[in-house]
């Protein structure tokens, strides 16, 4: 088990996943003006993810107007990711799939084992990552990160919009970067 973690103001791991819409999302290849927001979700089996991603889709134009590029990523197969895109009615949010669990772990995401079918009757994959949300600066460094061990109690996108507004208006630095003795 690794104890490494991502640190603000330091480079994030590589992210290169296929997109349901075609092509690939390669973090840093075409960075957003202010931030790339990477939203890792559990997968098609998660009803809370669906609700969360519906809200992300609704607010995606607001993020775009602030220079924030949004991508939702899971370790699901292309078929399952495509089904999630349909459930969410995604037009503004890009959906990546086939995230390796090794890459998920590099991002600090927790990994869970299957418990069978969920409350919506969809089988969980044998292994899958738990949620996380990250804001990455155009230079590839971490600005903000949140990971969960459970599907609930995630950062709210409306709150993140306010945080982006504040950060941009005040040129607020990424926090949590100190690594010295305590």
Task: Put the structure in a nutshell.
The chain has helices at residues 47-65, 78-88, 101-106, 157-170; strands at residues 16-18, 24-26, 35-40, 68-73, 94-96, 111-113, 127-129, 132-136, 142-147. With 182 residues, it is of the alpha/beta class. It has one domain (16-167): Glutaredoxin.
Defining traits:
182 residues, globular, two-stranded antiparallel sheet, alpha/beta, Glutaredoxin, 5-stranded mixed β-sheet
The H/E string reads EEEHEHEHEEEEH
Helicity range of the residues? 25-40%
Determine Rg (CA atoms, Å).
16 Å
What structural category do the secondary elements indicate? alpha/beta
First and last CA, distance: 24 Å
**Helical segment count:** 4
Q: How would you characterize this protein structure?
A:
The chain has 182 residues and is α/β, with parallel strands linked by helices. The protein has one domain (16-167): Glutaredoxin (3-Layer(aba) Sandwich), CATH 3.40.30.10. It has 4 helices and 9 strands. It has helices at residues 47-65, 78-88, 101-106, 157-170, and strands spanning 16-18, 24-26, 35-40, 68-73, 94-96, 111-113, 127-129, 132-136, 142-147. The strands form 3 sheets. Strands 5-4-3-8-9 form a 5-stranded mixed beta sheet. The protein has a two-stranded antiparallel ribbon with strand order 1-2. Strand 3, helix 1 and strand 4 form a beta-alpha-beta unit. The longest helix has 19 residues, at 47-65. The protein is globular. The protein starts with 15 loop residues before the first strand and ends in a 12-residue tail after the last helix.
């Amino acid at each position: 088990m690794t104890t490494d973690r991502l640190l603000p103001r330091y480079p994030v791991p590589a992210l290169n996943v296929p997109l349901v819409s075609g092509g690939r999302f390669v973090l840093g290849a075409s960075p957003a003006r202010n931030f790339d927001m990477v939203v890792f979700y559990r997968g098609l089996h998660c009803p809370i993810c669906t609700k969360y991603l519906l809200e992300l889709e609704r607010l995606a134009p607001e993020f775009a107007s602030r220079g924030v590029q949004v991508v939702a990523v899971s370790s699901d197969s292309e078929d399952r990711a495509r089904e999630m895109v349909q459930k969410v009615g995604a037009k503004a949010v890009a959906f990546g799939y086939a995230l390796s669990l090794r890459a998920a772990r590099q991002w600090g995401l927790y990994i869970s084992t299957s418990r069978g079918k969920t409350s919506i009757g969809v089988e969980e994959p044998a292994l899958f990552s738990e949620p996380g949300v990250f804001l990455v600066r155009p230079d590839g460094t971490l600005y903000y990160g949140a990971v969960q061990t459970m599907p609930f109690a995630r950062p709210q996108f409306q709150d993140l919009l306010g945080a982006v507004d504040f950060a941009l208006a005040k040129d607020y630095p990424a926090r949590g970067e100190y690594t010295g003795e305590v």
